[in-house]
Amino acid sequence: MSKSQKDRARQSDVGGRASGRQAGEEKELIPLKYQHLAAIVLLFLSIMLFFNPIIFGGKAFLDVDTIASHSFDTFLADARQEGIFPLWNPYIFCGMPAYGSLTVTGERLFDLTALALGKASQLFSAILLNPQGGWVFFFYVVFACGMYLFTYHKLKSKFAAFLAAFAATFSMYIIIWAMTGHNTKIAVMAFFPYILFVIEKLRERFSLPPALLLVLLLHFTFLPSHVQMIFYVYLAIYIYVVVLFMQESIKKKDRLFTVVVGVLALYPFLTTALPANIIHQIIFAVVAITLVVYVVWRIIKVKEYQPPARALLAVIAAALLAFSMDADRYLSVWEYNPYSIRGTNPIVPSSQQGEVKTVEGGLDYDYATSWSFAPGEMITWLVPSWYGFGVQEYQGLFSNNQRTMMNFYWGPQPFTHAPQYMGIIILLLAIFGFVKNRKDPFVQYLGVMIGLSLLIAFGREFPLIYDLMYRYFPMFNKFRIPSMILVLVQIFVPILAAYGLVSLVKEARELHGASLLKRKKSILYALGASIVIGLGLTLIYESLLPRQAIQNMFSTVFQYQLPRDRVVEQVFRQIPPQVSTQLAAHVASLVKADIYMAIGLLAVSLGSLYYFIQGKLKFTTFAVVTVLVIGFDLWRVAYKPMDPQDRTAQQQVFRAPDYVEFLEKDSTVFRVLQLRQGQVFYDNSLAYWRLQNVYGYHGAKLRAYQDLVDVAGLDNPLVWSLTNVKYVVSDEPDSSAGLGLVYNGRQYKVYANLSALPRAFFVRRYEVADGLSILSKIRDGAFDPQDVAFFMEEPKLQIESPHPAAKAEFVSYGIQDMELKVTTDANNLLFFSETYYPEGWKAYLDGKEIPIYRVNYLFRAVVVPGGIHKLEMKFEPTGFYLGKNLSLIANLVVIVGLGYSGSDRWLKRRREGRGGEKER
Question: What is the pLDDT averaged over residues 766-791?
């Protein structure tokens, strides 16, 4: 690089000269050729330092979701040892698809590129000496580097790119994923900045290497299987391409094209809202095809429309190929979806509101919108503790003056671990960046996405956009937690802040005379207004706390045991008034501390800016101060919910308690119902000890199972019999007539279910009834399951009453297969206390396939003729085996394509080199 080129590079970067008014040339803090490397190293070190207790201190995060994921470690180890891919999970909810529900995954040896990524994360973890969750930190580093790369590509400013990457990585909603066990979220979003970068490159000029790279990046986002996060990635890309087309058409005043693109952009909404009438569908299809043909014609005719069209085609082709690379997983999900609570409505609506708003085939509206982000909670972007913050350390009357972690959140969501805080300086820079660059097409896109994401996140709190998406946008009604889309805000606001920083420094260099004086005054006015407003809020905050705020705090403390109304009724009213008063004062003190801190940070930042524009502060000093202020602001908030525990504590969680040791002595096939304070609770830990739980923890249970729970309830003795509950484990004494105490442990007591039935037994006859009638009979205990089984459709079977000597004995019971020796003298109906799932379960009698019937709404049954037979059941889902072959083929296509393009480029460079030598 020549001296003039170096000078231009310095001038284009924010980190170049500080001001034309400063005397002399400011020396670079870091030499130019090392600045990219330095930025990446600083990002890496900041992540290592933040997670120091985990990486180097022998600590671990213990959260419900973290524990839930480790609960299946034994299950996965068994599957590896047996050489099978874990497609079925027998340990929760009477059995459910393991892979199709995205509960666990096995070794996908056929996905070659995913294996390479996995080896890279393992190597990274090994370099860090294999800390707990080392692979998670790998994805944080990948994300930070991607944010730096993309922002630098847009702004050509290393300092601004570093600040955007740092701020996005340590924004509260993103950094907390590692603490709460939501690790698949960062594994998806780590590649989002790279996807935007490659799309930009393809928009500029199409070539095969970046197109194949886009395939790999989209494939890597599919791998973690967090479908909702993947949906947001594609939503952001979809809107990006639409905005690009709209911007170009508006610029050219091509009104018809603008309207047509707008109509096609709404196509997903229109298809969902379309009447089922075939005539209407044909008309709509003809109109849509006509509009597409018109758009294609205009793209060919108008050169300015070709870049976004090129990007769109590349994304579509790459997405299809990437999906093929993950086809085994998502075809399994596709099979499972119609049978899950996310694909079928409940048999009985949960509430009147749900009956009105719930969409056929989607999640219950009330359930889907539980975590709606109230518009008022946007104030936490400035004052993170305004709504009580979330989980943080507490020592006071409520904890008997013992230090503990407590959730102080009191807003409308069921609970939340922490606010959506991005840093007050980052937020102000983002606002400034948008105002100053509002004519920039990409900045307009960022504004559109931030606004749309907020409106969707409001959910039922302000359903203007959410309800439209829920009703009419494909797949959207399968998702819950509307606030999750704010991840896009947490990524795009720091990028806008980078724009703001570049504009701010550029403006500071150009200020002189009256404009300089005016800017200095505006800084002083801004600081003064912030102080007045902040101090005013500290004086009135406690009076603004609503009456139910403290009650809501108690509901978050008891969230896993009792519903909110029962907390208020049974717990809150028993709390001494001084405890409530002290908690209110404690929350108010947190808010005051945040406001005082915000004032201090603004004073330092605006003060450094004030002296910088005067030329009294070098740019290097201004940059260091800015980084330190933003870093301190983000870290002080991000550290609050961090509660690392000794790794021995995690081992203690999975150390077999005494009641488990008792249950492990029983070698028969059975299930357990576990109660805490008289209630079933979300927990998968029994699976760690290979104990099958009739309940569990999962966000997409089988709909039939959930209907059984909703209508009949898990406190029902007939449900216990049907689900093969042999033991009830409880932390409270239980004197129910159907239970007998068999073990009195230190914390839990074990009761035998005196009416327990075996996993498989013969039934004398059958009847036909509709689903709700069957569930009602179970609820009322209105039949003997050994006498009659209920079909939902007439099976037209000849069934005889079994002989007293008839028996079904388990020879083996595996993860996704079982074998029985069945002895009977006539055509008998054999009932299985196993969930009915037709997409994969097959029954073989003496090697010949026989049908499996759905009985008693949730369960399976087969007909066995007279004689001694070998009966096998195997889980062999078509989607997985078809998808596995597609994945291998797609991987080979991408690898060969990358190899070809790489070798072709190498040969071209070699030929060019030889040509140059000949010229010399």
Answer: 97
Q: Which of 86, 62, 91 is nearest to 181 (CA)?
A: 62
Closest CA to 40 of 162, 196, 163: 162
- Pairing of β 817-824 and β 867-875: antiparallel
| Phi, psi for residue 861 in degrees, rounded to 5 | -155, 150
Q: Which residues contact 847 (CB under 8 A, 6 or more apart)?
A: 870
For the chain, the distance separating the N- and C-terminal CA atoms, rounded to the nearest angstrom, is 21
Pairing of strands 841-845, 867-875: antiparallel
Is residue 72 within 8 Å of residue 687, measured between CB atoms?
Answer: yes
pLDDT averaged over the chain? 88
Are 199 and 207 in contact by the 8 Å Cβ rule? The answer is no
CB burial readout 420-455, b (16+ within 10 A) else e: bbbbbbbbbbbebbbebbeeeebbbbbbbbbebbbb
| Residue 610 CB contacts under 8 Å (≥ 6 apart), including other chains | 520, 523, 524
Q: Is the distance from CB of 53 to CB of 658 less than 8 angstroms?
A: no
Residue 459 is predicted with a pLDDT of 95
Q: What's the CA gap between 871 and 848, in Å, rounded?
A: 9
149 token code pair: 């790369």
Rounded CA-CA distance 222/183 in Å is 14
Q: Cα separation of 347 and 331, whole Å?
A: 26
pLDDT at site 26 = 61
What does the block give as tokens for 693? 């739980």
Give the whole-angstrom CA distance, residue 377 versus residue 192.
26
DSSP string, 888-912: HHHHHHHHHHHHHHHHHHHHHHHHH
∠ CA 414-420-421, rounded to 5°: 145
Residue with tokens 């795009």: 492
**Cβ–Cβ under 8 Å, residues 690 and 728:** no
Structure token digits, residue 187: 């594994």
Quote helix, strand, coil % in the chain, to nearest 5: 60, 10, 30
As a residue count, the chain comes to 920
Looking at residue 190, its pLDDT comes to 97
pLDDT tens digits, one per residue of 876-915: 999 999 999 999 999 999 999 999 888 878 888 877 766 6
Helix axes 134-155, 192-204, angle to 10 degrees: 30
Alpha carbon dihedral 323, 329, 335, 340, in 10-degree steps, equals -120
Residue 758 · residue 824 · CB < 8 Å: no
Q: Annotate 163-183 with b (16+ C-beta within 10 A) or e (fewer).
A: bbbbbbbbbbbbbbbbbbbbb
What is the predicted pLDDT for the residue at 358? Answer: 79
Q: What percent of the chain has pLDDT over 70?
A: 92
CB-CB contact of 697 with 92 (8 Å)? yes
